[in-house]
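Section 5.1 Outputs to date
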Amino acid sequence: MIRAVDLRGIFHILGEIREMGYDPVLWRRHLLNRFLNMVGGVVGMLVEYPSSINPHRPGRLRINDSGIWSPSERQVFQDSLARFQEQGDYLSNPYADIHDSSEKMTVFSGMDLLGKRKYYNNPFVNELMMPVNLGDGLKCSAAHAQDVLELHVYRANDDRPFENRENEMAMVLLAEVSLMRQDMAGFEKVSAFDLSPRLQAVFRLILMGRSEREIARELGISAHTVHDHTKILFRKFRVRSRMELMAVYFNTKNHLDRLF
């Protein structure tokens, strides 16, 4: 059963990522790293996708990961995953059924679902997880509005399986993050259609690395006006510097593709 100290840790994480909400990559990585530390995981992934697509096939998945993978281990994992996707062979995936649940929140660990012997004899586990030294995996899924958010956490192959308490911790964390994302969606999914033509022009030139003087000269306006437009962009995207503004754009580019 989840403990009071676990809840305090979870809500501490939530407070931290709320403060980082202006950076869509930073808060996701921070969440993964902090939760991995809480439950003794070595690799974590946060997967996001529209509920209308099949996550078993290549599609509009947004994946952030954190852990001990070396470049060679990452390549082995990605190659194996691509092979499973191409073959459509997800029947052996012990986690596949989670997507078909009608529940808004689901959570389980692979060993708890199959039992230790069946888990380690599973082709998906043998071909995808064992080569990179991953053991039991905890998977939690939260559906909210039109999106699905999944948290995957894996322990090392020689570590103990996940327990119910850790499953409950994942459910609490993901439920709160799912709700929090709705508050942060305003600046994670800002559309270029919301910007005036002048703001779009200034934004485009900032992304091209132009200084305020260069932008002013190119647009035929004063440097002071460019500075004011830049401040408006900072407020709109809730960032504090040009670098943060560029980070938001390049991590949510599909929402701003009208700029180019």
